[in-house]
Amino acid sequence: MNYEIRAMSFAEILDTGFRLVRDHFALLAGIGLVLYGPLAVFQELLGARSPDQVDATSAIVGVVFVLLLAAMSPIAAGAMTLAIGEAYRGRSITIGGAYRTSLGRALPLAGTFLLMGLGVMVGFLLLVIPGIYLMVAWMLATQIVMLEGIAGPSALSRSRDLLRNNMLRALGILVLAGLVMGVISTVLQLLVSGIPIVRSVATAIAQSVAMVFQTAVAVVLYFDLRCRKENFDLEHLAQLVEGAAAPAHPTPARPTA
Q1: Within a domain: residue 250?
Q2: Residue 171 to residue 177: CA distance in whole angstroms
Q3: Could you tell me if residue 3 is inside a domain?
Q4: 205 in a domain, yes or no?
Q5: What is the pLDDT of residue 121?
Q6: What is the pLDDT of residue 256?
Q7: Count of Cβ atoms closer than 10 Å to residue 254 Cβ
Q8: What pLDDT sits at residue 202?
């Protein structure tokens, strides 16, 4: 499916993010379920046990499981970002392919996430305002790591440069996307809250969809800013024209007599 890559309005970015989720729901929800599926099952099993049944071993297993999921979170975010970026540009990718690529960039992703976390934490300690500024200025770091191959301080600097003079607009778009999906996710979970097995499945799906939509909006916003500041729409159009003009199979030269 083809999508128009250009500078967009507030509403157009949200609409394009929704269409990406709708058109590639199975792929994107599948990527999210790799992370949220085991978490939902674990929460369901833990909730079924009474407090006196939770021994030290169970607590340790729970802590290890949560830490593993926390370590997996940047990988899942990277895989989701890559899949949406490929879909938005009209390319195909599988769940396995997205995760393989993201795992190959695990260290750059982890390093960038760690720098972000430390920077934002220090910023919040410095009267809160610097932390909010850095959190917004670096919000496109995952997109830059996965779609440009830039990581670490360079990715954070690149995110800040793209968002310069657009921070309030970008923050508003992502906050609204989060609110919309938060409401949908809450309603879905409330509807099935009394059915144990269905509840865990619905929770995993709801969390996956929320992650998918917010990531899709962030990816569209990333390309929107590149179109505004770097004329990426013209570059992308030129690549499409060049690809369409190239013959699918070169015609062999006829032998001369």
Answers
A1: no
A2: 10
A3: no
A4: yes
A5: 93
A6: 45
A7: 6
A8: 72
pTM over 0.70: yes
Say how many residues make up the chain.
257
Domain total in the chain: 1
Which residue's structure tokens are 């144990």? 196
What's the number of CA atoms in the CB half-sphere (13 Å) around residue 13? 26
* Eight-class DSSP state of 195: -
Q: Are 124 and 202 in contact (CB under 8 A)?
A: no
pLDDT for the residue numbered 140: 95
What CA–CA distances, in Å, run from 192 to 16, 29, 206?
29, 19, 11
CA 157 to chain centre: 19
Domain residues for 107?
10-241
Q: Can you say how many angstroms the Cα of residue 166 is from the centroid of all Cα atoms in its chain?
A: 20
Q: Going from the first residue of the chain to its last (257 residues), give the mean pLDDT of each consecutive group of 10, the final group possibly shorter.
A: 86 93 92 80 61 60 72 89 94 93 93 93 88 93 94 95 92 88 76 63 76 92 93 67 52 47
Tokens of 209: 């969809």
In the block, tokens 């609409």 appear at 15
The answer to whether residue 82 sits within a structural domain is yes
DSSP H helices in the chain: 10-23, 25-47, 56-88, 95-104, 106-125, 129-137, 141-148, 153-163, 167-191, 196-230, 232-245
- Which residue, 21, 32, 2, is CA-closest to 98? 32
Residue type present at position 18: F
